[in-house]
Amino acid sequence: MTASYAVSLATTVLAIAGDASAFPVRRVYCVGRNYVDHIREMKEGDERDPPFFFQKPSDAVVANGAELAYPPCTEDFQHEIELVVAIGADGVNIPVTAALDHVFGYAVGIDMTRRDRQREMRERMLPWEMGKSFDASAPCGPLHPVARVGHIGRGAITLSVNGEVRQTGDLAQMIWNVPEIIANLSTQYELKAGDLIFTGTPAGVGPVVPGDRIEGAVEGLGAIHFTIGSRKS
What we know:
mainly beta; Fumarylacetoacetate hydrolase, domain 2; six-stranded mixed beta sheet; five-stranded mixed beta sheet; about 35% strand; Fumarylacetoacetase-like C-terminal domain-containing protein; Fumarylacetoacetase-like_C
């Protein structure tokens, strides 16, 4: 007996603010530990370490306004508000001075994390995928093209849960700024149009539970919101 199967060829896309077209997502890179206060609250790493990266699957990206099921395999589901950079031009070994030429636009994103699983993997010196790279772990708002908003290097970044502010900071507090992130990452991978880079989170990360409403904002890029649904079996 031959098993039947179907292969989905659907491409994840993000809306582009003020445009009827959409941005096809290729890869999702994330920067770990890029704000000093977050390093201190997590009690991990050297504040002078170079940036390091991990990835999420492209279909982990979910659009603004979604309901996220509380994922399985965790009792500590946490939020991390981040500036997202969308790459619009291919490049490898990109100089810092040319890095911004490769940026299509910016968005507000949230790196959702199974913190208990992340800590467990770190303690066992295993990859972080269990804690970071699960389904619907990368909510992201619409992209704002550089042609409309310019380059985003400073400004308030905040997150609230049920109207209570949890995270607040400024993009200028990033240890590694956007050009430095792009330049460093492009020495490890050939960046392609369609790649997203989540650039790290300020202090104040914390847990959410079913029924919570989360709102994240970056100055100049507006806000995104979503709710936490029931536990996924």
